[in-house]
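Risk register update: the risk of archive-format incompatibility is retired. Evidence:
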Amino acid sequence: MERMASAPAFNRWMYERISPWIGARVLEVGSGIGNISQFLATRELLVLTDTEQFYRNELQRRFGDLPHVEILELSLPEVPEQIAWRKFDTIVCLNVLEHIDEDEGSLAALRRLLQPGGRLVLLVPALPVIYGTLDEALGHCRRYTPDLLRSRYAAAGLVMRHMEYFNLAGVVGWLVTGRVLRRKMIPVGPLRLYDRLVPLFRLERFLPLRIGQSLIAIGEATS
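Archived output:
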């Protein structure tokens, strides 16, 4: 998560792809050091969470002075009382679900935190065929297919409103780094180069090939 601070253009691109579905009362799951939280900080209510005290301390340092921001511990599928009683219109969960064995139970827990019509904005790694040493080092339990994600949403009581691939260019880099070179970390140098090329990668929306390193899925709580 700290490493992605070296990719500000990529973080903004990711946020812009999900921003149309984000409302006013937001829970972010797995906020890390706040790479995406910084774009959410103007919402009416923002609850930032993480499992690690180190990250919560960093979030407190960056956002703790904002009166509408709270920083709490959350380790799915368990939900603490400070969060469980609330209802949000948006839950943002980016690159988190793949780390959790109980992904079905975690999605069901998030569903219970949404108000009727509320949205779960999820981003997960896609394409199981490129699973490699990078995934292992990052603690990924799986990479998702669209069918798997649809079945998980249905089991959790979420209606899939939108799904799309994201980051076509990342597929080759992840495959080479994690399957061919078998590295356990993306070097900062190539990451910064990749970030400088983000304006080019944004053009993927004009390509007929619908594939990418990640999947964005928007689920709705209908009742």
